[in-house]
Amino acid sequence: MIDYIAGIVTELNPAYVVIETGGIGYCINISLYTYEAIANTESCRIWIHEAIREDAHLLFGFSGKDERELFRLLISVSGIGPNTARVMLSSLNPAALGNAISEGDVNTLKSVKGIGLKTAQRVIVDLKDKIGKQSVSGEIFTFSDNTAHDEALSALVMLGFAKNSATKVIDNLVKENRSLPVEELVRQALKLL
């Protein structure tokens, strides 16, 4: 599975970007939010979600892991496919979309083209508990950019701990001390789990 693609931007428009790396040009579907984030760059790193079907192998790209995670949550909802999720992320930035879901704001979700009342309600019911509360910095997933946080969480999940409980413990540890190394985060989290 592809986690990200880094390379030279050879073609860019609001619907997709072509990134060349290793002599291969990858056509990646993007949201307007990602388009704006990479608009003035010659090279970039795009976080990837692969959608493999019988008739197509599609790549969806995101400027950050938090946007990709929100995309994956959206496509887990019955009736929301990758293209609808991409439209939602193009209509609302990830922070606004996360807020609308966590606050149960049906009207904001209905403002997205193709999202009716029932779909908006289903998104809220299915994802309200999964979406983290918005942080002061405006990011949906407060510590998603913290490498030590991500590595510690990954280690705990591989050790067999539930992702939700491990995430809460690590979030609290990082709030107390952002400079903890991965090993110490895991050690302290093991004591609390």
What brief labels describe this structure?
193 residues; OB fold (Dihydrolipoamide Acetyltransferase, E2P); single chain; Helicase, Ruva Protein, domain 3; 5-stranded mixed barrel; alpha+beta; 3 domains; 47% helix
Structure in words:
The chain has 3 domains: 4-62, Beta Barrel (OB fold (Dihydrolipoamide Acetyltransferase, E2P)), CATH 2.40.50; 65-127, 5' to 3' exonuclease, C-terminal subdomain (DNA polymerase, domain 1), CATH 1.10.150; 147-192, Ubiquitin-associated (UBA) domain (Helicase, Ruva Protein, domain 3, Orthogonal Bundle), CATH 1.10.8. Helices cover 47% and strands 20% of the residues. The chain is built from 9 helices and 5 strands, in the order βββαββαααααααα. It has helices spanning 32-38, 65-75, 82-91, 94-102, 106-110, 117-127, 147-158, 163-176, 182-192, and strands at residues 4-12, 16-21, 24-30, 43-52, 57-62. Strands 1-2-3-5-4 form a 5-stranded mixed β-barrel. Helix 2 (65-75) packs across helix 3 and helix 7 (147-158) crosses helix 9 (182-192).
Regions with pLDDT < 50 over 5+ consecutive residues?
133-145
What's the CATH topology name of the largest domain? DNA polymerase, domain 1
The secondary-structure class comes to alpha+beta
Helical segment tally?
A: 9
Tell me the series of helices and strands, N- to C-terminal.
EEEHEEHHHHHHHH
Number of domains: 3
Strand line-up across the major sheet: 1-2-3-5-4
CATH class of the largest domain: Mainly Alpha
How far the N terminus sits from the C terminus, by CA atoms, comes to: 30 Å
How large a portion of the residues is in β-strands, by DSSP E?
15-25%
> Biggest sheet, open or closed, and with what strands and sense?
5 strands, mixed, barrel
